[in-house]
Amino acid sequence: MGKLTATSIEVSGLHFAYDGQPPVYANFNLDISPGSRCLLVGANGSGKTTLLKILAGKHMVGGKDVVRVLNRSAFHDTQLVCSGDLAYLGGSWSKTIGSAGDIPLQGDFSAEHMIFGVEGIDSVRREKLIELLDIDLQWRMHKVSDGQRRRVQICMGLLHPFQVLLLDEVTVDLDVVARMDLLEFFKEECEQVRTINCNPNVKNDCSQ
Predict the structure, then answer these.
(1) Span 64-79, pLDDT tens digits
(2) According to the lineage, what is the superkingdom (predicted)?
């Protein structure tokens, strides 16, 4: 894990609007410390996913100092994501592994092939995630259910240790037991001074 800063996420005077639409955020400020577990709540269409994508560097907003993650520009510093220090798991991401859009790929490959195909991974962390998510390494990715596919995708997304993790309703396809186990894992990660910002799909998860 790289050098920690006093602030994991810092947003200063954010203004953001989609073309032809009223502002989603105007003069918005945010300061999140390392080790935090933050829950983002609001009505449908209130801009929760938009904010997470901005923090993940998926939207360019103002100058380099408007949105900073680990004291680096979320949009301009591509090394943030490439290094694994900043990780984003969301709905659009969930369709990029083992599928093309909403259509499963026809290639017959296993969960083991995908998970063990990620290089430079701590084998202990990998085995822990496989066990925690109850993944059968023999699952064929073109035949799995949505819940099974999501488990593999979450595992792959968490293989690299992160400093900041942004989650956008990634537990939607998981059963209650798997969801609670995953939240316990996130709690342990935060105890290592990592930061998690979550847009949950189940309000009962908040107590975790």
Answers:
(1) 899 999 999 999 998 8
(2) Eukaryota
CA quadruple 143, 146, 150, 152: dihedral, nearest 10: -10
Label each residue of the chain as H, E or C.
CCCCCCCCEEEEEEEECCCCCCCCEEEEEEEECCCCEEECCCCCCCCHHHHHHHHCCCCCCCCCCCEEECCEECCCCCHHHHCCCEEEECCCHHHCCCEECCEECCCCCEHHHHHCCCCCCCHHHHHHHHHHCCCCCCCECCCCCHHHHHHHHHHHHHCCCCCEEEEECCCCCCCHHHHHHHHHHHHHHHCCCCEEEEECCCHHHHHC
Q: Does residue 207 register a pLDDT over 60?
A: no
CB 40 within 8 A of CB 52: yes
Per the prediction, the chain carries an average pLDDT of 84
Q: Are 78 and 97 within 8 A, CB to CB? A: no
Q: How far apart are CA 58 and CA 75, in angstroms?
A: 7
- Pair type for strands 37-39 and 103-104: unpaired
Average pLDDT estimate for 35-63: 90
Report the length, in residues, of the chain: 208
Asked whether 141 and 185 are in contact (CB, 8 A), the reply is no
CATH architecture for the domain at 9-203: 3-Layer(aba) Sandwich (3.40)
